[in-house]
Amino acid sequence: MAVWQAEWVQARLRDIAPTVNVTLKRIKTSGDKITDVPLAKIGGKGLFVKEIEEALLQGDIDVAVHSMKDVPTVLPEPLGILCVPAREDPRDALISRQRRPLSALPPGARIGTSSLRRQSQLLHHRGDLDILTLRGNLDTRLRKLNAGDFDGIVLAAAGLRRLGWVNEVTEYLPFEISLPAIGQGAIAVEGRRDDAFVRDLLVMLNDPGTHTAVLAERALLDRLQGGCQVPIAGHASIEGNRLRLDGLVASVDGKTIIRDAVEGAPLDARALGLSLADRLLARGADGILREIYGKA
Q: For the chain: N or C, fewer Cβ within 10 A?
């Protein structure tokens, strides 16, 4: 997935600036190397960006391409997210061996996922499911499903669509069942904020609507101080001159979910994210956060 995203950005940059030489440098991160341990136990999704950001800071590369949901809300100085292209489908998708939708899976069905967010929401919807840890690239996950290790797996629809695996999808999960991760489906293009040439180049790839929606989502996550250890979800959408942001905080076992939404002007995206976080905290999310971090 990371290679696809980098090659996609490379191709778009070549389209808009054919005279600029754009080459790829592959950097294998700690998150890529450690695939047999849940992310919550090894430092979270920041492991997918740390080595790449170090290369940016040292001037070894000029642009870094990430999945937005892997990017921490606090970036090292002087780095910034310079571009957010149009978002792909943000939903979660179920792939089951017998093409059964979630509602038709038998009690005790084994569902593979790498996400506590998905785990908690699936258990809230169906407490009889057996949620098992599943990591690795898309090919690895599908191979384990087909080998019978799982009855179904839940993945980001965006990755399946980008890599041409749409026909494998059994069911796209509605937001009422599985609200996405912060930034899910969006690509973050990171660079040095003082690099005017790169900044001016990347602005031509930026999608203002997606960038604004992601800003609201990341403000929500930042105020909640969330990471992989906490099931936090959020999704913002813009229709006309209104931005709607849905968010939730859940207990790991899925028994408690605190959910709310706010609406307002897109120009107030960050303030809306902070406001929703405060509403969730006031309704009981603070207790969930304290309990989870106390056990971490």
A: C
